[in-house]
Amino acid sequence: MMFEDLVRAIQPKFPQLTAANSRPTSPYDEGYNCIAWAADDTDRWWEPDPLFQQYWPPSVPREYTLDAFVRAYGLQGYIERCNATVEMGKQKVAIYTASSGKPTHAARQLPDGWWASKLGREIDIEHEFEALDGPMYGTVAVILARPAKQHSMSGK
Amino acid sequence: MTTPTVVRRAPTMRSSPAIGVAANVIFAISAMGASPQSDQLRSRLRDASVHFAFPASNRRDSRRERFRSLAQQWRSETQWFSSTRDIAMHPAYQAIIGMGAAALPMILEDLRQNSGHWYWALKAISNEDPVVPGDRGSIKKMRNAWLQWGETKGLVRA
Questions:
Q1: How far apart are CA B25 and CA B59, in angstroms?
Q2: A112 and chain B: CB distance < 8 Å anywhere?
Q3: Could you tell me if residue A155 is inside a domain?
Q4: Which of A138, A109, A136 is nearest to A120 (CA)?
Q5: Counting CB atoms within 10 angstroms of each CB, which of A5, A91, B83, B147 has the fewest?
Q6: Among B82, B90, B149, which would you mutate to test the A interface (most chain A Cβ atoms within 10 Å of its Cβ)?
């Protein structure tokens, strides 16, 4: 399926997503999710699931709350709360929440101001900041920054 | 001109369910004060009627068909979810968990062929988890651990 067709097909879930404000970057891979992708980990699925089947930083509460997700990224060095503008020397991640407040998605900022996202267990895309807002992922609740090129603090 | 030959077959229970019903009625009536052999025959006839109406092979096929349909629905409706909890809470996935241990061979076969996040269902149904803590979240290792578990249990071919 061409990317344009895919975007058209998923429009009800991502009404702001278009072929003009996004581009595909890698194919389907169920080995990791968006939360892992934003943390630069493409080997594991990150999630505080109650059955303890997925990876979650051991020192972070295993719960689906914004605070827990902020703490998980904090272990990767993302400590400073900020906005979506591009700042030299800083890497940023955005955490999305549904209207209920439950975290649904995360994206990582690229040097050109676009954002890199993994869509579920499907493809990776790059997109403009608000392109994924909608019923599927809600909206961005928090943006966190860390000094650019800082290595992981999780010990992985 | 030749006329087509009409093949006449003797009526059977399969061709005429009424025969089965009639036989049951006869046995039911004769059961009152009848011999133990009559009771035994009546019981066997009842079993035969049940097997006729619901063959075990059909039950297996319909279960497999139901699994396939639910799995397809689940996959297409959860493909954008980033949470395995949300993925597992989908009604089709829950229906598969509701099939119980009978679903395990089909889940493992699907896992082998198509991969997919079946780990929640496998753990929920079996109450076991062959994945070592260090491999949590490593989908390939989780898949291998569960397939090996299934092979050990004789639930999926080696």
A1: 27
A2: no
A3: no
A4: A136
A5: A5
A6: B82
- List the domain boundaries for chain B: 17-53, 57-152
Structural domain for A124, as ranges = 3-147
Asked whether the beta carbons of B145 and B135 are under 8 A apart, the reply is yes
**What is the sign, positive or negative, of the torsion defined by CA atoms of A7, A10, A11, A13?**
negative
Q: Which residue is closest to B88 within chain A, CA to CA?
A: A49
- The type of residue at B141 is K
Q: How far is B129 from chain A (nearest CA, A)?
A: 9
Residue A129 lies inside a defined structural domain of this protein: yes
pTM value > 0.90: no
Burial B49-63 (b: 16+ CB within 10 A, else e): beeeeeeeeeeeeee
pLDDT digits (tens, 9 = 90+) for A32-68: 999 999 999 999 999 999 999 999 999 999 999 999 9
Confirm whether A156 is domain-assigned.
no
Question: Contact at 8 Å (CB) between A139 and A97?
Answer: yes
Amino acid A155: pLDDT:
38
Residues 70-109 on B with a CB inside 8 Å of A are 78-85
In contact, A33 and B82? CB cutoff 8 Å: yes
pLDDT of residue B99: 97
